[in-house]
Amino acid sequence: MDPFVPETGLRISEVSLLLGIPVPTIRSWERRYAFPTPSRTHGSHRRYGIEEIGQLRSLRDEVAAGRAAGDAVTQIRKRRSDDSRGPAAWTQALLDAAMRFDAFGIRSTIQEATMGIGIDRTIESVLLPVLREIGTRWESGHCDVANEHFASQEIRRWLSGQLAISGSRKRERSAVLACGPKDLHTIGLEGFYVMLTRRGWNCHYLGEVTPTSSLLSAIELVQPDAIVLASQLGTNRLATLNSIRAAWDAAPGRVFYGGRAFMSPRARRGVPGTYLGEEMVKAAALIESSLAGRELAAQP
Fold first, then answer.
1. Are 86 and 116 in contact (CB under 8 A)?
2. Which of 39, 45, 240, 290 could form a cystine bridge with 231, CB 3.0-4.6 A?
3. Model-level pTM?
4. pLDDT grade, residue 3 (50/70/90)?
5. How many CB atoms lie within 10 A of CB 257?
6. Dist. CA 109–CA 106, nearest whole Å
7. Which is nearest to 171 in space by CA: 6, 39, 37, 7?
C-alpha cells in the first residue's frame, strides 16, 4: 500500500486535491464511462485506493494531452489489457512462481496485474485460472499438492488485504455466501466475497462445507438481500441443490448459485434461484440489478 494512501482509501475531495481534477469531473467520468469504479462506504461515499488513483491520473494526463475523455478511457483500457502485459502473461507468471514456491513472485505478479487491469479482473482473469490450472496439473500428477496449497495461501492473503482496504463498516445491503455441504473449494467464492464487499455489500461468508441447517440459521438471523451458494464438483451437486431449495423456501427470490457443478444446462434444470454464470464481474452486476428490480417493485 502506498504510504500516502490509507488502507481505507481517499475521499473524492482528497483525490481531487491530490490530482488536480475537479470533483464534478471525477464524478462525470465514473457516471459516463464507469472509470474508475471505487469502493463505497456504508453511506455510499466513494473511497479511492491506489488502483483507482492510478486510473484517474492516467485519464487526467490523456485528457491534458488533448484526447477526448471517452477515447482516452478506451485507450487506457486497451493499453492495460495489452497481450504482452495482460491476463495471459500474468497468469503464466503467477503459475511459474507457484511452481517454484516463489512467494515474492506471486505477490509482485498479483500487484502488477491489479495495477494493470484492476482488482475484479485480476480475480476473475488471473487468480482463478491459475488455481484451476494448478488443480489440473495436480490431478494429472504434474505438480505436488503443496504447490496448490502454497498458491492458495498467497492468494487468500491478498484477498484478505482487499477486504481490509474496503473497510468494515456496516452496509445497507447484505448477502450470505456459502459453499455446499460437501464443498471444500472456496477461493472462487472468496473472490466473489471481495467483489461484493467492494460494491458496498455487507457480506456474511460462511465458507466451506456449510450444512444446510447452518445456512438456514444464518438466513434467519441476517435476513439477507441475497444468498449465494457455490459448488465446484459434480459429485457434490445434489447436496448443494438441497441447500439451494431450502434457502429458496426460506427466502424466495433471493437465491443465487454458481460454480462448475452447475455449468451445464442439464445440471441447472429444476434448480430454483438465479444462475450466476461463469463470469464473476457479470455475476456481481446480476445480483445488484436483481436487488434494484425488487426495490423498484416494492415502491408504492
1. yes
2. 240
3. 0.70
4. very low
5. 25
6. 5
7. 39
